[in-house]
Every structure is written in C-alpha cells, then in structure tokens.
Amino acid sequence: MAIRTDNNMQSRPLLALLIIFGGIILLMAAMILSIIYGAADIDLPTIWQSLTQFDPSQTAHQIIRNLRIPRGLAAALVGAALAVSGAIMQGMTRNALASPSIMGVTAGASFMIAVAMAISSQVTTISLAIWAFAGAGLGAGIVFGVGTISKSGLTPVKLALAGTAVTSMLSALSSGIAIHFNIAKDMSFWYAGGVASVQWIHVKLLAPIVIIGLILALLLSKSITVLNLGEDVARGLGQRTVLTKIIATTVVLLLTGAAVSVAGTVGFIGLVIPHITRFLVGVKYQWIIPAAAVLGALLLVLADTASRMVNPPFETPIGTMTALVGVPFFLYLARREGRGL
Amino acid sequence: MISRTKRTSLWLLGLTAGLILTILISLNLGTMSISPIDVWRTMIGQGTDQNQLVLFDFRLPRIVIALLIGAGMAISGAILQGVTHNDLADPGILGINSGAGFAVVLFIYLTQNSLTSTVFILPLAALGGAVLAAALIYLISWKNGVSPIRLILVGIGINAAFSALIIVFQLKMDPDDFTKAQIWLTGNIAGTDWSYTLALLPWIVILLPIAFYKASTLDALHLGDETAQGIGANVEKERIFLLVIAVALAGASVAVGGAIAFLGLVIPHLARKLVGARHHHMLLTSALLGALLLLVADTIGRNILSPSEIPVGIIVSLIGGSYFVYLLMKS
C-alpha cells in the first residue's frame, strides 16, 4: 500500500508548525478575499465597519454579517472536517484511497437527506443534520462491512469498488425518492449547493461538532500513528486497537456528517489534503491532523471563492471545483497504485 | 451429469421461454390492465382500437427497447470483462456511461432541445462521449501496457470527473430540461415510441453478431496476455477492436436508455455461473439474461407504484448493486 512504501519514517515538526501557523494566516487572508468578492463587491473599510459599527440599515453590512461571514466560516469548518476525516480514515485503514466521498459516507448522508425531505417538506437544519449523521453511518457501515467480511480483506481496490457500488446504489435510491416525491430540484440544490446559502444557524451547528471532532482527533492522533504501522505492531505495543478504531470511526462520522449536512457532497478534499499533508509533514499524525485541518479549510475557502469567480453571476458547484483538483490527483494515485497491487 | 453443451442449450431454451412469458406479462400489465385473451386478440388484429393503441404504440416499443438495451449493455460488459480480464469491469464503473451522459447533457444544454426531437442525434452524441471516456481511460492507464487494476481505478477517477461536469451543466438548465436530464441519467425507458427503437435497432443488430463472431478471441484474451500471444492473437489490436465494439454498444444503449448501472457488470457473472466461461455460450446467455433482467425491472418499475413510475435504472441498481456487493464479499 502506498502509504507504507512512502513512509520514510520521518516527521518534520518545524515544517508542520510553519504550515499550521502560516496556513492560519493564509486562511485569514482567504476569508477576507471570500468576503470581499461576490455579486456585490465590498471594500475592506466596509468590512471593518460592519464588524465594529454594525449599521443594520446598510445593505453592505447586512451582506457581510449575514451572508459572507457565515459562508466563509462554514467553508473553513467543512474543509477542516473533511480533511481530518480523510486523514483519520487513511491512517486507520492504511489505505491510500480511503476518504469520505469514496467510501460511501457522503452518498449515505445524501440518501438520508432525501428520505428526510421526502417525509416532511419543512425539515429544520438540526434534524437535517441528524439525518445526515445517520446516513453517513449507514454508508460507511456498509462499505466497511463489505470490506471486512470479504475473504481477502480490505484492499484499496476492493474498497474503491465497494465504495463505488454502494455509492451508486444509494444515489440511485436518492434520485428515485427525489423523482417520486418531486423534490429533485430541492435535492440537487442541496447536493451541489456547497456553502452558498449558509446561515448563522448552520455555523452554530457546525462549529461545536467540528471543534469537538478536531480535539478528539488530536487526542487520538498518537494511536493513529501507531495503528498506521500495522495492526500487529500496534497490538504488540500494547494499544487497544479495537477501541481506537471505534473512537476514530465515531469521529469520522461526526465530522463527515456535520460537513455533509451543511455543504452537501464536496468530494476529494478528504482524499487529496491528507496525501499532500503527509507528503509535507511526514508520518506523525500528531502533526498531520492539525496541518490537514488548516490546509483543508484553506482549500475549501479558496474553492468556494473560485466557484463564484469562474462564471459570474452564476456559481459553479463547489464539488466541481474540488473535483478539478481532486480528479487529476486521484488519477496520479491510481497510476501509481496499479504497480504495487 | 449432462454435458456442457446440453446444459447450455437447456438454459438458453429456459431463458427464451422465460423471456416470452415476461413479454406477455409485460404486455398485460399497466395502468390499464389488458387481459391475456384481449392481448392475444389484439395481436392477431381483432382488438379494440384502444387496446391496439396501448399495446402497439406504448407497450410493445417499450418492451422491444428494453430487450435491445438489456442485451446491448450485457454484451458490452461481457466484452469489457473479457478484454481487461477483470470480472469487475463494466461500462458504468469504468466511467463510459458517465462520459456518454456528459455528452448528452452537454448536447441538451447547447441545443436547448427537448429529448424527443433529437432522438436520432442523441445516440451519436452519447457515442462520442463514450468513446472520449474510453480513450481517456485507456491513455491514462497506459504505462508499458494496461494493467486491469489500473484500468479500473483510472475509470473510477474518470467517472468522478464526468459526474462533476454533468452537474455543472445540469444546474444551468431550465427546470424542465433539468428534470428530463435527471430522469435520463438515472436510467429510464419511459415514454419510448418506435422512433427510439428504430434509432437503437441498427446498432444492436450490427454489433451483436460481431461480438458473437469474436467469441474465441475473447476466450484467448481472457486467459491473459501472454497466453493469448502464445496462441497467436495480436493482443493489442484485438483488444482495441473489441473495446470499440463494447464502447459502441454501451454508448448506443446509454443514449436511449440512460445510464443504467450494474447491468453490464452483473449479467456476465450470472451467465458465467450458468453456462461456464467460454464466450460462445456465455455471450448468448448474457444477451438473453440482460434482456430478461431489464424487461423484468422495467415491468416492476412501471407497475409497482402505478400510476407513477420508478425509472428502470433504480430497480436495476438495487438488484445489480446487491449482487455486486455479494460478489465483493465472496472474492
């Protein structure tokens, strides 16, 4: 598997620190860019005014406070959540292709959201999130289950295939529900929506879950580093691998469920960012996880801003922007993967 | 123990009988049920005008098209599996369907035409998309030859790329075209009339016999490249020829029936289980099985929630997907 052959067993804490702090500064800059740029252009002093001397009668202030800021924050939180989910999944399964969108997690969440929308036309943000969690669990459960039950175990190819199969089954069901209950347009707006229509309530929902998820991920990071050496080694070193895996999976579901419930299906962040991070900071998940969080947040804020710039005044779905980065990277991995398997 | 050929003949006979029975049932069921006797009367030209209209103008073309698409997709899958000697290959997983889908969505978007008025051009667009996807997959997986696993992984990536592009253009459509494209992408053969059937018929009628004719080449390729070379097959040339056939079959079927997933994957497996891996028997069985499965699925989709319809692709995904997951667990 690619991760192991890549491991030169080195960790670069200095570079990691640089990425984390430099990344946070870049993230701030990206957020400001994302607040400035949009259908109504806004200058820096106005942003400052809207924060310090908020004047409800000014449209620009309203736009900044109620549309742009929550949107930027949500993009950062979703990016961090997906990147960390992917990092944990890849570390835990030692599988280079593990990531929320490949492993049926996102498809599961969208399926349950279709169910929720079909049952009631007036679903609240909170209940939508709960449905998405359940769905994320369902999707991951099936894919993991198939991989684990199968005789030769969870090889990357099998994982990708099981993920693809489960994803297309679940999305077939979702579109069936969407067509039958006449919610196709609602569904696909949500599906491709990204963070365009995010409100404060979404941020308030997302922030605590992502923060708790990130803290748990950091606490787990040492165990994941050990687990990444192989299950036997981990057990030999006295780790309770089953417990680690259960907690890690819960964290993945929390983070992915929250991200998907707010932003729909944003692919490839969870696949690409952990790889780039590992390449930069080395093998220690104590560094990988915080660095991945920052880079994921940065990439998604930039992708969201770009999605508004490509074809104004229309917004290009954010999933497409991330696919633009993600697909070439996936193909590169696929070409490399084919040799060792 | 009966001989292999005899067993194959029995299966072929059984499947043909099953197919005829399903056709009769499918003619008989629908929003307006027509009794078997009336079906018969109408078939021999003594039915009421209304029955004649329902059977000949609505149900029969739809049945024929289900049969054609089922056979086309199944054979496409069987060829792809033989060529890549990978039993998990299929036009859907390799991204050929989404390539065709992308071309069709792009076409609808650019021309702003409704799907019905472009019935003869759409298969060409879909075919172009399918060929583009297949060529991309082949080129990107090429690295001193094409390893089957690389082919599949690259296919998954190409699939993701085209799916992302489909969404971009789909979201720019007006609501009417949007819903049409959505239903089409799920895989659907509702609202067919004879013009669709006529658009698809030549493709299937020409390509299926070529596929059958190439059965022994597929046998050789399925053994692996070295063995195939050893018995004198020009591996690369044959592979590309067969790929073109498979892509054309998938492209034409997808153009008319939409992106029906799993059919090309599951049917060849079942056929292999029933009659063995030799392509002479296997291809014929696949064609019959594919036709049967798609007709059964469409009949279910048409009737289970009548009067509203479930697109056939969803039914096939559910049946095919479960079987695929079962295959993965066993392998």
Automatic annotation (TrEMBL), chain A:
Major localization listed first in the record, in broad terms: membrane
Keyword terms: Cell membrane, Membrane, Transmembrane, Transmembrane helix, Transport
Residues spanning the membrane: 14-40, 72-89, 101-120, 126-147, 159-181, 201-221, 242-273, 285-302, 314-334
Signal peptide annotation: none
Topological relation to the membrane, as annotated: Multi-pass membrane protein
Subcellular location: Cell membrane
SUPFAM superfamilies: ABC transporter involved in vitamin B12 uptake, BtuC
Gene3D superfamilies: ABC transporter involved in vitamin B12 uptake, BtuC (1.10.3470.10)
Pfam families recorded: FecCD
The keyword Ribonucleoprotein belongs to this UniProt entry's keyword annotation: no
Family statement: Belongs to the binding-protein-dependent transport system permease family. FecCD subfamily.
Protein name listed in UniProt: Iron ABC transporter permease
UniProtKB/TrEMBL annotation, chain B:
Pfam families for the chain: FecCD (PF01032)
Spans through the membrane: 12-34, 63-80, 92-111, 117-139, 151-171, 194-213, 240-267, 279-297, 309-329
Origin: domain of life: Bacteria
Record's keyword annotation contains tRNA processing: no
Gene3D superfamilies, sorted: ABC transporter involved in vitamin B12 uptake, BtuC
Membrane topology value: Multi-pass membrane protein
Family: Belongs to the binding-protein-dependent transport system permease family. FecCD subfamily.
Annotated protein name in UniProt: Iron ABC transporter permease
Higher taxonomy: Bacteria, Bacillati, Bacillota, Bacilli, Bacillales
